[in-house]
């Protein structure tokens, strides 16, 4: 793993807060996610940067050395971004604009295309982030107008005060991706117990992802091996039968991978459109809803699920 500015920012937050718990709250991430990130940073550097004590975290001698170099870099990057944004704003052509952000989703392309048709002459920009909290902070700071984010069930997002929320889907079930020749792939609905012996792969940098999976597996009395990595890597491992992974129900069909609902839908997220106070998001929300419905209808497994549950999202336009 190569160190990035976000890693250095996390180290500074831990040092300033004096504990992983307080630092995680400041950064808007879960403590397990921050703990995993710190462990990966320390593995990269080959030594501990903080001593975990009963009263919190204290930098080691190496940690102090790293922090002394990290702080100017973090401050410099913040200044660079602020100056670049100010310069870009000063040179922006006059006219309406819409700055949208989103966590990874199958509906982004359709949403963007619909917005360009509905808002001709509008300068529309898109920013995709792994972290929902990072997008929320950008909306709060005025760098984005709206953000489409998902909130893992049981792991509520820390939405900054004053931001407005509209719920797109109150509870979207998360499906499971598995190899085509996996025994459970023969079923229309997969039992969690069918996957007890499989390694599960989750991305710990996605806010709430690991916490949500761990909660569901623990409630089912399961303790399978867990791999941490991005979902591009997860897809390649799933195809080879080396792992199973949660996935969005709108995921398109693949010849080399099976995507199935889980019995009882234990994993779920809430889909939100968050905006600045007073912002008119009528068009943005309407086109997002239409793009989501298009994606839901194209994903046959999800469309069947919606029909079984008599969801209004399954209605024909």
> Whole-number average pLDDT?
89
The backbone outline, from C-alpha atoms, is globular
Major sheet details:
5 strands, mixed
Beta strand %: 15-25%
Count of alpha/pi helices: 10
**What ranges have pLDDT less than 50 throughout 5 or more consecutive residues?**
none
Structural class: alpha/beta
Quaternary state of this entry equals single chain
The radius of gyration over CA amounts to 21 Å
- Total count of strands: 12
Cα separation of the termini:
46 Å
The share of residues in helices is 40-55%
Order of helices and strands: HHHEEHEHEHEEEEHEHEEEHH
Task: Note the topology.
Blueprint: H1 5-17, H2 20-27, H3 31-45, E1 50-53, E2 56-59, H4 61-90, E3 97-102, H5 108-118, E4 123-128, H6 132-140, E5 146-152, E6 164-173, E7 175-179, E8 200-202, H7 209-219, E9 226-228, H8 231-239, E10 245-247, E11 257-260, E12 268-275, H9 282-298, H10 300-308
Helix pairs in contact: 1-2, 1-4, 2-3, 5-9
Characterise this structure.
The protein has helices spanning 5-17, 20-27, 31-45, 61-90, 108-118, 132-140, 209-219, 231-239, 282-298, 300-308, and strands spanning 50-53, 56-59, 97-102, 123-128, 146-152, 164-173, 175-179, 200-202, 226-228, 245-247, 257-260, 268-275. Helix 1 packs across helix 4, helix 2 crosses helix 3 (31-45) and helix 5 (108-118) packs across helix 9 (282-298). 42% of the residues lie in helices and 20% in strands. Strand 3 (97-102), helix 5 (108-118) and strand 4 (123-128) form a beta-alpha-beta unit. The longest helix has 30 residues, at 61-90. It is globular, with a radius of gyration of 21 Å. It has 317 residues and is α/β, with parallel strands linked by helices. A 5-stranded mixed beta sheet has the order 4-3-5-12-6, sandwiched between helices. A 3-stranded antiparallel beta sheet has the order 10-7-11, covered by helices on one side. Strands 1-2 form a two-stranded antiparallel sheet.
């Amino acid at each position: 793993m190569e160190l990035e500015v976000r890693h250095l920012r996390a180290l500074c937050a831990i040092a300033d807060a004096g504990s992983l718990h307080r630092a995680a709250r400041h950064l808007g991430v879960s403590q397990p996610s921050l703990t995993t990130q710190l462990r990966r940073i320390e593995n990269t550097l080959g030594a501990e940067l903080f001593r975990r004590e009963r009263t919190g975290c204290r930098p080691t001698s190496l940690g102090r050395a790293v922090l002394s170099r990290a702080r100017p870099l973090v401050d410099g990057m913040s200044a660079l971004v602020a100056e670049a944004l100010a310069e870009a704003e000063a040179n922006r052509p006059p006219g309406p604009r819409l700055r949208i952000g989103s966590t990874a989703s199958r509906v982004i392309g359709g949403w963007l295309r619909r917005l360009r048709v509905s808002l001709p002459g509008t300068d529309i920009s898109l920013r995709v982030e792994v972290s929902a909290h990072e997008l929320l902070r950008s909306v709060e700071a005025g760098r984005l107008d709206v953000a489409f984010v998902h909130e893992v069930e049981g792991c509520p997002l820390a939405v900054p005060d004053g931001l407005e929320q509209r719920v797109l889907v109150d509870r979207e079930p998360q499906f499971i991706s598995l190899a085509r020749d996996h025994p459970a792939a023969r079923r229309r609905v997969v039992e969690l117990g069918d996957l007890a012996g499989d390694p599960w792969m989750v991305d710990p940098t996605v806010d709430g992802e690991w916490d949500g999976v761990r909660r569901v597996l623990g409630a089912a009395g399961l303790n399978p091996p867990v791999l941490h990595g991005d979902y591009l890597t997860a897809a390649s491992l799933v195809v080879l039968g080396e792992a199973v992974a949660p996935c969005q129900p709108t995921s398109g069909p693949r010849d080399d991978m099976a995507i199935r609902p889980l019995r009882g839908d234990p994993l779920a997220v809430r889909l939100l459109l968050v905006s600045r106070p007073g912002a008119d998001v009528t068009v943005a929300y309407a086109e997002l809803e239409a793009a989501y419905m298009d994606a839901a209808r194209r994903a046959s497994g999800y469309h069947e699920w919606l029909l079984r549950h008599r969801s209004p999202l399954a209605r024909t336009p």
